[in-house]
Write the structure tokens for this entry.
Amino acid sequence: MITDRDIARWRLHSQLLAAPAERAEEVVRSLVAVQAENPSQSAWAVATRTTSPGQDDLAEALADGRVLRIHVLRSTWHYVHADDAQWLQELTAPRVMPVFAQQLQPLADRLPALDDAVEAMLAESPDRTRSDLAAALAERGDELTGQQLMLLLGRLEVLGLVCSGVPRDGEHTYALFADRVPTPRRLDRDDALAEIALRYFTSHGPATERDLAYWATLTVTDVRRGIAAASDRLASFEHDGRTFWHAPGDAPASASPAGHLLQVLDEMYRGYQDSRWVLDADGVVPRAREAAIGMALVGGQLVAGMKRTVTAKAVTFSLRAHRVLATRETSAIRDAAERYGDFLGLEARVVFDDVAS
């Protein structure tokens, strides 16, 4: 009989945390999309899923346009493979665009002119930072707040007009989508629904139809259409009154490495909503809004909240355990910290606070 712990441990394999890929590009392609609001921590989300985590791997994929950092699936940043950007936008934009439309309502009358201005600027001089674009718009009398410009650019990304450019000294830049992805892959809607169902449940499974609906901002009806089209390439089981879909195969008996230090925006947490809490089989994690910006997983279970502090010489992980931890669990966490420190090229320090009450 499958348990919550079995499902969480299975996801460590599906999500490449216990079965890493060779390169960052493979990770992003496999997961379809990786939430990327915080560039430094989301870079680790990708790197920790590779066999030899290194900062240059993802950076090179972003620089040459194999991987893009854009607003897609939901009204937030994700890394996506260039081959997947167009069809994902076309599939999910109808339910994402209203979010941008509502937030940009005060600029509604100016949007066509602003869109044209940004496109013209990027056509003339690509790989421009948000500050560059803000200054150029201000020069022509279009002063925007930082929030307004971010929303404007996010909207243009969802429309498939703008995307990430070549980073400048590590800073995000913008370019025209057509320049970065001259021959985009496109799918009709039924094929796109089948593809997203197959690839989400393969890379995130076992998961439920409502998990995918949340993750991709799709209706449950659309998700069911996708599952029906891809069901001959998927397997399923019943658990806790729900159907869980996954790639064919049996539940893994173990997962190595056992410990992981991740942001709460990581796909292991944010990649689900309906069945997110298989991460907490014991029910010890508060269900209120996340107080910590990071988490410690051991064996797929969320055992502590985590805060990362980076200085010139060290990275310190401050952990607040949700229960008393066994020695093997603290050892797994220290091992995860060492891997993270090696990635950053810094000494790793772990501080355990008292158990959260």
About this structure: The CA atoms of residues 54 and 338 lie 14 Å apart. The chain has a mean pLDDT of 96. The longest helix spans residues 82-103.
